[in-house]
Amino acid sequence: MEATDVIKALADPQRFRVLAAVALGASSRDEIRSRASVDARGAQAAIGRLESIGLLADEDGALRVNYERVRGLLQTETAPSPRDDVSRFVQDGRLTSLPSKRTRRHTVLAHLVEQSFDEKKTFDEKAVNTVLERWCAGSGVDHVAIRRYLIDHQLMFRVQGVYARTQDVLPAAGEAERYMDAIGLG
Hints:
Blueprint: H1 3-10, H2 13-23, H3 29-36, H4 40-52, E1 56-59, E2 62-65, H5 67-78, H6 82-89, E3 90-91, E4 94-95, H7 102-116, E5 122-124, H8 125-136, H9 143-152, E6 157-159, E7 162-164, H10 175-182
Antiparallel strand pairs: 1-2, 3-4, 5-7, 6-7
Helix pairs in contact: 2-3, 2-4, 3-4, 6-7, 8-9
């Protein structure tokens, strides 16, 4: 269900009055019917519809507004889409800046990786730097920091100076990499 479904449901005056009565403290069906000035049949239909879309919840025979559901709808409707996050930080194929919030940064970096690096290929550090320098040109964003973030966010993997989007195309880890992994620094 989306917020537009709630708006459609509340466009009916009886349903709106029933919801308002519950929000103002009415909990029994008779009390709701009385406060909402709705006949028994209309109140029952409105309550049924509001329960079916999750706006009203029955707790031990007492109805209440399901505020958690309302907040959830609001967050769903107002949360920026990943595409919005990318467009705020990437313009004309260039990074304009890097988000400080980890989840947004991950989304932007994932976009960069998907656009620039083939999933089945490996890249040496020079090739990775060349691609990242193009993304960072003129923005003040450090391409070396971006390269480190790609590893930190596990969007790219590195073994013996070779980078890839997936670990299965990388060469076997050498002794130094195994040691770094063993002590938790890999």
